């Protein structure tokens, strides 16, 4: 039964659910059999999945057990089932030796519905907190506004400490100088208070401004793309004419800079969709097994176009969970599609070992590489550097590098480059490329 699809396997477990529900209610097998008008031996065969039931008998058993018939025939609610499957998978990867019995989820849900709901709710809560923690960790390491504010706070702390040290060590200080030092202490303390308050406000955006602490235009636009799953059906169908509607409905677009950046990025999306329409890239991706190396001809020489379009595919069965990073020739990240377990900094460069940077030295030469992260995740990457603008004859073009990322499934043992999320967050202290 383990090799069957989930839907078939769960349908064949009706007997298990009847038995678990009966035991949960403290009923004897004979009592339940008598209540529905069958023999105890026949009920025993049902509970061991040796007899298929349906219709009148299933309804009778459901009434006797005080449960909906669907709960016996279909088991746990599909959403609950998927959540518990995800919890089991995440637990295995996070705790190593712990191996939950994922094949017995329906039994758990039938016997302990309250605990099952609690586990599912806690998993959702943990996943949400992990996402928040990842975002805050990223921001602490790469937010330039926060870095400047922290620099000012530390400067004020140093000034206060220096002034207080002078006052403590010089008891015979001239009264005029002592008054000046006291005034400095007061002014630096006020500045410290204001800077600390500004840092707090930086993280505590009002609820009306959206779910996250977005403050810069790039953060606001990234939130727009994340909310849409990086796929915009309106633009796919109507091209650039659909951009205004997308921006109008997006949160946080009151700022002129955010609106301008959103229009710029969505215009590029519209151009990509026009050059490589969804009805072309989607079937080609399925046929190629979502392997970018087998799809390069679709871009007619523009490899980055293929990588961006793969990252904008609508979510459906079989489509990998893609991440995307785009940087300029200086290594600054211009755009990203975040991927679970693969941290892409919001500001500043990522890991120096990423192929995203290596391909800048070989423009036009696409490269495929596998990366292993410190937490144990393994990812396949496809990268290319290409000119995006020409500055004139005899002058170097404006270059950008693009890297598509996907979890390596299955992990076939191929050699992987030990990399990280960027030096500020990476625990690989012995890395020769570490800044």
Automatic annotation (TrEMBL):
Entry keyword annotation includes Zinc: no
Q: Which InterPro entries match?
A: Cro/C1-type_HTH, Lambda_DNA-bd_dom_sf, ScfR_C, TransReg_Diox_bact_type
- Residue ranges of the HTH cro/C1-type domain? 18-72
Q: Does the keyword Transmembrane apply?
A: no
Q: Which GO terms describe its molecular function?
A: DNA binding; DNA-binding transcription factor activity
Its cellular-component GO annotations read:
cytosol
Cross-referenced SUPFAM superfamilies, in alphabetical order? lambda repressor-like DNA-binding domains
Pfam families linked:
HTH_3 (PF01381), ScfRs (PF09856)
Instruction: Recite the UniProt keywords alphabetically.
Output: DNA-binding
Q: What is this protein called?
A: Transcriptional regulator, putative
Organism for this UniProt entry: Roseicyclus elongatus DSM 19469
